[in-house]
Design goal:
The chain is α+β, with helices and mostly antiparallel strands. The protein has a domain of 166 residues: Lysozyme, CATH 1.10.530. It is built from eleven helices and five strands, in the order H-H-H-H-H-H-H-H-H-H-H-E-E-E-E-E. The protein has a five-stranded antiparallel sheet, with helices on both faces. A hairpin with an 8-residue loop joins strand 3 and strand 4. Helix 2 packs antiparallel against helix 8. The radius of gyration is 19 Å and the shape is elongated.
Length: 303
């Protein structure tokens, strides 16, 4: 699988700047202060690309107004908040949700009024329900809160929503979108589940109650999107389908490690840009870490 390792490394080099910003945000710790989590709009993003047509370009254009802000963070926030405007929940296209938030980026009215921007072709006056205005205004808010710097990005996301699981999910999905803007909705669901378990203790044989082991985490994550995986890493590897040797792995692929195809002993969920979420070993927690472990056996693309 040497070609696969080379492909992953090439992917890292191609996006090293945005990855550095996002990884720094993960390592920057958490801000205190609980808040109600955002609606689980990401859970509805199944079947086909998670981002609707034109949304990646919109996020990229809006992020360009804040040097250093990864466009994929806007994509991730939009996905978590409203499935990028596709959610039919109250407050997305009209009205407000139970917390008073409005529009695809779920602004509180006072916050939108403070940071409202009429984006190119947006509504006049600026409207939180207009996708262009909402995304450009979100970029302005994140930028004001320090989102244009690696040291300030996590704090800016936490200022957007103070829940630490929200921030973990947004930053995880941002890595995935940055690596592959066409990432499938079922992958978004699996990665969102795994991101929500960051910090959960490793537990041998764990499938969620009290903790996870590596294959218990991958099995549970993909089950959220309706993908059934066997219980143990060796069987998950055998279930395939395999990612062909020499092919770049994509977000949501499972990557396996061990002594060989018949000796698989670890699995991680590939997030993008050379990183994975896994439950590594006893005494550790579920975490985001480098996927460049020794003993790479191969990768699969569950479906």
């Amino acid at each position: 699988m040497g070609k696969l390792v080379g492909a992953v490394a090439l992917c890292c080099i191609a996006v090293v700047l945005s990855v550095a910003v996002l990884v720094s945000a993960f390592l920057g710790g958490s801000a205190p202060g609980p808040s109600a989590p955002s609606s689980d709009a990401a859970a509805t993003a199944r079947g086909g690309p998670a981002l609707p047509a034109g949304w990646a370009a919109l996020d990229q254009a809006a992020a360009a107004t804040c040097p250093g802000l990864p466009w994929s963070v806007l994509a991730a926030i939009g996905t978590v908040e409203s499935n990028s405007g596709q959610s039919t929940e109250p407050g997305v296209s009209s009205g407000a949700n139970s917390a008073g938030a409005e529009g695809p980026m779920q602004f509180e009215p006072a916050t939108f009024a403070a940071y409202a921007i009429v984006g190119p072709g947006g509504a006049r006056p600026a409207s939180p329900y207009d996708a262009v205005d909402a995304v450009y205004s979100a970029a302005a808010l994140l930028c004001a809160d320090g989102g244009g710097s690696s040291g300030g990005l996590r704090g800016a996301v936490l200022a957007y929503n103070h829940d630490t699981t929200y921030a973990d999910t947004v930053l995880t999905l941002a890595m995935a979108f940055g690596d592959d803007p066409s990432v499938d909705g079922s992958v978004v669901v699996a990665l969102s589940f795994a991101a929500g378990r960051l910090g959960t203790p490793y537990l041998w044989g764990g499938t969620g109650t009290g903790g996870f082991d590596c294959s218990g985490l991958s099995q549970a994550a993909f089950a959220q999107g309706g993908v059934v995986l066997p219980r143990v890493a060796q069987d998950q590897f055998a279930a395939g389908p395999p990612v062909p040797d020499g092919t770049t792995v994509r977000p949501g692929d499972l990557i396996f490690f061990g002594t060989g195809p018949a000796g698989v002993d670890h699995v991680g969920i590939y997030v993008g840009s050379g990183f994975m979420i896994d439950a590594p070993h006893s005494g550790a927690d579920v975490r985001v870490e480098s996927a460049h472990w020794s003993g790479l056996v191969g990768a699969t693309r569950p479906a």
